[in-house]
Write a structure and sequence with these properties.
Largest sheet: 2 strands, antiparallel
Structural class: mainly alpha
Oligomer: single chain
Helix content: over 70%
Shape: globular
Order of helices and strands: HHEEHH
Strand content: 5-15%
Strand order of the largest sheet: 1-2
Number of helices: 4
Radius of gyration: 13 Å
Number of strands: 2
Number of domains: 1
Distance between the termini: 11 Å
């Protein structure tokens, strides 16, 4: 069922956000175990994002995030490997939008 799949996607986004927050905002490296988990989660959510982002966009209107270069795709920023706080903001926006989509289904 799509709601269960979206909940799983959201849970993985939450864990990915926690890892990226640790790396970016807290300036800490990941342990060996965390890095292995991070890589698995990234692979899973990047594939799932291809499946669910359009649905999330349709239900919430979330498409862009304001950057110094203007409005850019929020999902591209969410999965960007830069150590930029904008990545954390984009991930948080995507997580919230996914939760709102679940609530509307």
């Amino acid at each position: 069922m799509i709601v269960d799949e979206l909940k799983d996607f959201r849970d993985k986004l939450m864990q990915y956000l926690a890892y990226r927050t640790k790396q970016i905002n807290q300036h800490k490296g990941l342990t060996k175990e965390e890095l292995a988990d991070f890589e698995l989660i990234y692979e899973e959510i990047s594939i799932s994002a291809g499946k669910y982002t359009q649905l999330v966009k349709e239900y919430t209107g979330l498409e862009t995030i304001k950057t110094s270069a203007g409005l850019q795709d929020v999902w591209n920023w969410a999965f960007n490997f830069e150590k930029n706080t904008l990545v954390v903001s984009a991930l948080d926006n995507c997580l919230q939008a996914t939760s709102r989509t679940i609530g509307k289904l």
